[in-house]
Amino acid sequence: QLQASGGGLVQAGGSLRLSCAASGRTFTDAMGWFRQAPGKEREFVAAITWSGGEAYSADSVKGRFTIARDNAKRTMYLQMNSLKPEDTAVYYCAAGGTISVLITSVIYKPSFWGQGTQVTVSS
């Protein structure tokens, strides 16, 4: 089971840190974050390998969001800085599956999904 937390309301330019805690099992593989804004499809945000040695993020959040994990705590994080109103969405954590690194994009297909946490950025 994956439990996401840390969402909330923040002004543009502010920061939030999301957490995703795993329970019931240890995910010894990739983990990541997706988001879904109202009226839009769910989109990839960031992913990280088991060791944490490789991390990937969508172009829209590069330089602003940082993904990390603490395997001892079975927790993944998403540090979000310089937030923009367009970052407003429900953020979902995910685990397992595969990360495919293509020439111009990264495709992460997880096996497990957590519930979402709402992030709202006001202008």
Task: Note down, in words, how this protein is organized.
- Strands 2-12-9-4-5-6 form a six-stranded mixed sheet, with no helix packed on it. A four-stranded antiparallel sheet has the order 1-3-8-7, with no helix packed on it.
- With 123 residues, it is mainly β.
- It has strands at 2-5, 8-11, 16-22, 31-36, 43-48, 55-57, 65-70, 75-80, 89-95, 98-101, 106-109, 112-122.
Short description:
With 123 residues, the protein is mainly β.
Relative strand content: over 45%
Main sheet?
A: 6 strands, mixed
Number of strands: 12
From the N-terminal CA to the C-terminal CA, the straight-line distance is: 34 Å
Q: Quaternary status of these chains?
A: single chain
> In percent, how helical is the residue content?
under 10%
Q: Which structural class is indicated by helix and strand composition?
A: mainly beta
| Continuous helix count | 0
Give the radius of gyration.
Answer: 13 Å
Instruction: Give the strand line-up of the largest sheet.
Output: 2-12-9-4-5-6
Name the helix and strand elements from N-terminus to C-terminus, one letter apiece. Answer: EEEEEEEEEEEE
Low-confidence stretches: none
Mean pLDDT: 94
Molecular shape: globular
